[in-house]
Specification:
Layout: E1 4-6, H1 31-50, H2 54-58, E2 61-63, E3 68-76, E4 82-86, E5 89-93, E6 101-110, E7 115-125, H3 152-170, E8 182-185, E9 196-197, E10 200-201, H4 208-212, E11 226-228, E12 235-237, H5 246-262, E13 270-271, E14 274-282, E15 293-295, E16 298-305, E17 308-315, E18 321-326, E19 329-334, H6 346-357, E20 377-381, H7 387-391, E21 398-403, H8 406-418, E22 426-430, H9 436-439, E23 450-454, H10 463-472, E24 476-481, H11 484-496, H12 507-510, E25 514-522, E26 532-539, E27 565-566
Helix pairs in contact: 3-11
The structure holds S-adenosylmethionine.
S-adenosylmethionine binds next to helix 7 and strand 21.
Length: 575
């Protein structure tokens, strides 16, 4: 059993956790930061429950590294790992459930933050929540999916709690400013949903100078091809991944075989791309449909797509074009570039946004008439290849999208054309999101008639963007995010406001103009600890700050170019 050693005995036995708090004191939404918030709250609860003092906790003894320890799991953290508390220390144990008693191996104590990372070894007494038999043989080793032992309803309830905690821990808002978080919307497919997987393999051991000198790599055999082993930097050999779509799983088998046969051609490790692509074939005209199987040497999966048959294949060339359909809309992209990875849930997300961003205007009490104009314009910030612009196009008379990647803007422009969106009402800007507001013509996009959809990368928006958004003051904001922690931080800024900065910045405009109307998670990634957050914000009106029809974000310029796309260099000068 575990040997004991005194806490913090002088020498640091375990590697210090380098990535700690953000230098700005503001959440960066990192795993460490999110875990730490859960650890602190759990320790606080324990302290309140047993009245222990800081000094008493400092007396605690910790087991030696690599020893085994039995633990009672009480909750799952927002990072997806189980948490147990023993003698004032929190133990983080992956692949567990609240109510489990498990044996774990001590990997690393994070002394300054009172938690310990462990490896899961075995269940001694199972939790009543542990009802599912994980279909994946790599469960409890692969870092990909932690929740296969939990029923889906439990996963959804847990993800609701993640959203709730994110707003408690990172928004800085009082509880009264955050609405009750709605139930998480589940994914229609809970396995077989991922349209993209990127397994990888490591290169052979080789001196750096030999590699630089171009010495040919010697492979001792075919290396493991797969995903990271949980808690390590080692790649596990993974033959199959049941969260991938059928076409992607077939592609995985084919690519593994190819790499095995051609390993000598590789000079170093590589990441493999597996991206599903769909061809729609009409059912009429004598075409019966496409059966799954080999067609001209290629693996094809035939699926019923309503009026159509969907021929699904797996693309491995990152520059080749992959096609996806969401409702009646078609999206073409370079296979290696960003597109949402769970096609099955996308129609639910776009329908939800449609239903929620156009909620009826509030009636004017004195006259009984509608006091706010109808929203008819959309700005799609961080638009990628135009998914939201295109999928929501029928709801708006004018849309404009912005993305920092010129390649994404080329795809967005192409996707608008593919879906017959007129170029005078749908435009895209290739630039940093911060350039957006200088390019907006408030005559074409009056704030009171405009919704801004925001879907940034995991790190969220920066304050510069939020500042400009507050100055512009659209009637509604719909914030979609793959990191609910940075989303909570940014929504906190929009609701509570920011300090006015420098001379000339309108203090009123920096006041919180917004209230959160609705908030919930969408389960884009079943079986994993991730949740996509969708927050809908409403401008409060005159009492919340300025309500101006003119942007103060910079020079106002017309945005009505003859084509869909405005080049980055022209972002502020569109005319
Ligand atoms: C999560 S993706 C969303 C894409 C798109 N909304 C979709 O659903 O396909 C985030 C996008 O933000 C873009 N991006 C990252 N930093 C940016 C910035 N500073 N300004 C504008 N776009 C940015 C990326 O190129 C990427 O396309």
């Amino acid at each position: 059993m575990a040997q004991k050693r005194p806490f913090n005995e002088g020498k640091r036995h375990f590697k210090k956790n380098k990535k700690q708090k953000s230098s700005t004191g503001v959440s960066e939404g990192s795993n460490e930061e999110v875990l730490l918030a859960d650890v602190r709250r759990l320790l606080q609860d324990v302290k309140i429950a047993n009245g222990s003092t800081k000094e008493e906790q400092a007396e605690k003894e910790l087991p030696e590294q690599w020893t085994e320890i039995d633990l009672d799991i009480t909750e799952i953290s927002s990072t997806g790992d189980g948490l147990a508390q023993k003698n004032g220390q929190v133990y983080v144990v992956p692949f567990t459930a609240p109510g489990d008693t498990v044996t774990a191996k001590v990997v690393r104590h994070v002394l300054e933050d009172s938690y310990t990372l462990t490896d899961f070894l075995a269940v001694k007494t199972p939790s009543k929540h542990r009802t599912e038999i994980p279909p994946c043989p790599y469960f409890s080793q692969c870092s990909g999916c932690q929740f296969q032992h939990l029923p889906y309803s439990y996963q959804l309830a847990h993800k609701r709690e993640i959203v709730e905690k994110a707003y408690t821990n990172f928004s800085g808002l009082p509880a009264a400013a955050v609405p009750v978080v709605g139930d998480t919307i589940g994914s229609p497919l809970q396995y077989g949903y991922r349209t993209k997987l990127t397994p990888h393999f490591d290169g052979p051991p080789m001196a750096r100078k030999d590699r630089r000198a171009g010495v040919k790599a010697i492979w001792p055999g075919v290396p493991p091809i797969g995903f990271m082993k949980k808690g390590t930097r080692k790649t596990m050999d993974i033959e199959d991944c049941p969260i991938g779509t059928e076409a992607v799983r077939l592609g995985m088998k084919r690519e593994r075989r190819r790499v095995g046969e051609e390993i000598e051609k590789f000079q170093r490790g590589a990441t493999l791309l597996l991206r599903e692509s769909t061809e729609r074939v009409a059912k009429e005209g004598g075409v019966e449909g496409v059966k799954s199987g080999k067609v001209e040497g290629e693996d094809v999966v035939g699926e019923d797509g309503g009026e159509f048959v969907h021929k699904k294949t797996c693309i491995t060339d990152s520059k080749a074009t992959s096609t996806e359909y969401v409702d009646e809309f078609r999206f073409d992209n370079p296979a290696g570039s960003f597109f949402q990875n769970n096609n099955s849930i996308l129609p639910l997300v776009t329908q939800y946004i449609r239903d929620n961003i156009l909620a009826p205007p509030t009636p004017d009490d004195s006259t009984g008439t509608q006091s706010q104009p109808k929203i008819t314009k959309m700005i799609d910030a961080y638009c990628g290849s135009g998914f939201f612009t295109v999928a929501l196009s029928q709801t708006f008379t004018n849309s404009i999208g912005i993305d920092i990647s010129p390649q994404s803007i080329t795809s967005a422009t192409h996707n608008a054309e593919l879906n017959n969106l007129p170029s005078d009402s749908t435009t895209f800007i290739s630039s940093d999101a911060n350039a957006l507001f200088a390019a907006i013509d408030t005559a074409n996009f009056p704030p009171a008639e405009t919704v801004v959809v925001i879907d940034p990368p995991r790190k969220g928006c920066d304050q510069g963007f939020i500042r400009q958004l507050l100055k512009y003051g659209p009637a509604r904001i719909c914030y979609v995010s793959c990191n609910v922690h940075t989303q909570a931080r940014d929504v906190g800024w929009l609701v509570a406001g920011l300090e006015a900065e420098g001379e000339g910045e309108d203090e009123r405009a920096m006041k919180g103009l917004y209230e959160i109307e609705s908030l919930r998670g969408f389960d884009f990634f079943p079986q994993t600890g991730h949740v996509e957050g969708v927050a809908v914000l409403r401008r409060k009106g005159a009492e919340g700050g300025v309500v101006e029809e003119k942007s103060t974000a910079g020079e106002v310029q017309a945005v009505a170019p003859p084509t869909h796309c405005i080049e980055a260099t022209d972002a502020g000068k569109a005319s």
